[in-house]
UniProtKB/TrEMBL annotation:
Any one Gene Ontology molecular-function term assigned to this protein's record: metal ion binding
InterPro entries given in the database record: SQR/QFR_C/D, Succ_DH_cytb556, SuccDH_FuR_B_TM-su
Name this protein carries in UniProt: Succinate dehydrogenase cytochrome b556 subunit
Transmembrane stretches, start-end: 29-50, 62-87, 108-131
Residues binding heme: 85
Cofactor(s) annotated in UniProt: heme
Keyword tags: Heme, Iron, Membrane, Metal-binding, Transmembrane, Transmembrane helix
Role description: Membrane-anchoring subunit of succinate dehydrogenase (SDH).
Compartment list: Membrane
Quaternary data: Part of an enzyme complex containing four subunits: a flavoprotein, an iron-sulfur protein, plus two membrane-anchoring proteins, SdhC and SdhD. The complex can form homotrimers.
Manner of cofactor binding, per the entry note: The heme is bound between the two transmembrane subunits.
GO biological process: tricarboxylic acid cycle
Pfam families (UniProt xref): Sdh_cyt
Amino acid sequence: MADSPSRIERPLSPHLSIYRPLFTMMMSIVHRITGMALYFGTVLLVWWLLAAATSPGAYDLFAAVAGSWIGRLVLLGYTWALLHHALGGVRHFIWDFIHGFGAKERVLLAKATLAGSLVLTVVVWIIGLALKG
C-alpha cells in the first residue's frame, strides 16, 4: 500500500462556553424559541375554535381553563411570543433590504424587537381586559 500523508492537526471548533453571549445572539435564540412556542399556541387556538363550534359546554370548559390564573399566564406568554416573533420577522424583513447590518444597528433592532414586543403585549392585554369589562 502506498503511504498516506500524515494527518494534519487542525484546531477543533470552539465550544459555546468560549463565546461571550451577545445581545443579538440571545435575541436570535429567543426568536427561535418563540417560533417553537407558537406551535403550542396554535393548539390552544384550535381548541378555542373547536370549542366554539362544538357546544356551549365545550366552550365553557375552554373559558374556564383559559380564565384561570395559569391559563391567563399561558395566554400572556403566547401573546408575547406571537408579537416578539412577528417583530423579529420585521427585523429580518429590514435586513432583506440590506439595511441595519452595522454593529450599532443590529443591537438597536434587537433591543427594539424586545422592547416593542413587551410594550405591545401590555397594550394588547390592557385593551383586551378593558373590552372584557
